[in-house]
Design brief:
The chain has 138 residues and is an alpha/beta fold. The chain has a domain at 2-70 and 81-104: Rossmann fold (3-Layer(aba) Sandwich). The protein has helices at residues 12-21, 23-26, 35-45, 59-68, 87-99, 108-120, 125-129; strands at residues 2-7, 30-33, 49-51, 74-78, 104-105. A 5-stranded parallel sheet has the order 3-2-1-4-5, sandwiched between helices. Strand 4, helix 5 and strand 5 (104-105) form a beta-alpha-beta unit. The longest helix has 13 residues, at 87-99. The two termini are 15 Å apart.
C-alpha cells in the first residue's frame, strides 16, 4: 500500500513520533510525504520515504494528483486546527480522498485506527481498486 504523510509545521514532531511508534507497520508499505515532513520521518525512523515538493511549492497538489490516479491508499494529514493557513490544503486533500474512497486521518487518534486496520489487513480492499499497481515511485 502507498501511504502519504503530510502535516502542519506544528504537527511535524507528532508525525515523527507516530511514524517511529509504527515503524514496523509502515516498513511493510511504501511511504511518501511532502519534503520537510518526509525528511524528518526518514531521518528519525530510517524508513525510505519518497519525497514530494514542500507544501509551499506544490507538494500537496502532487499528492493530490496521485490520489486522483489511484496511486495513494491512505493519507495521514496531521492538521493544526487553530491555524487556518492550511485549511484549503486540508479541504483539497479531504475532498479528493472522499471522491476516490481513500482513507484519511487528520489527527493522531484517527491515524492510530487506520494504522491498526492496515496492520490487520482491514484495508486490503484498496488493492482491488488498482490490482495492476506497481510499487510507488517518483
Amino acid at each position: 500500500m502507498n501511504i502519504a504523510l503530510m502535516c502542519h509545521n506544528r504537527k511535524q514532531e507528532l508525525m515523527v513520533q507516530f511514524c517511529t511508534a509504527y515503524c514496523g507497520v509502515l516498513s511493510k508499505h511504501t511511504v511518501c510525504a511532502t519534503n520537510a515532513t518526509g525528511r524528518m520521518v526518514a531521518e528519525a525512523t530510517g524508513l525510505p520515504v519518497n519525497l514530494f515538493l514542500s507544501h509551499e511549492h506544490g507538494g500537496i497538489e502532487q499528492i493530490g494528483q496521485r490520489i486522483i490516479y489511484n496511486e495513494i491508499d491512505m493519507v495521514l494529514f496531521f492538521n493544526y486546527p487553530k491555524d487556518t493557513d492550511m485549511d484549503d490544503s486540508v479541504m483539497y486533500i479531504s475532498r479528493l480522498c472522499d471522491e476516490h474512497s481513500v482513507p484519511m486521518a487528520t489527527n493522531v487518534a484517527t491515524a492510530e485506527l487506520l494504522i491498526h486496520g492496515l496492520a490487520r489487513g482491514d484495508l486490503d480492499w484498496r488493492i482491488g481498486m488498482n490490482p495492476n499497481r506497481v510499487p510507488f515511485a517518483l
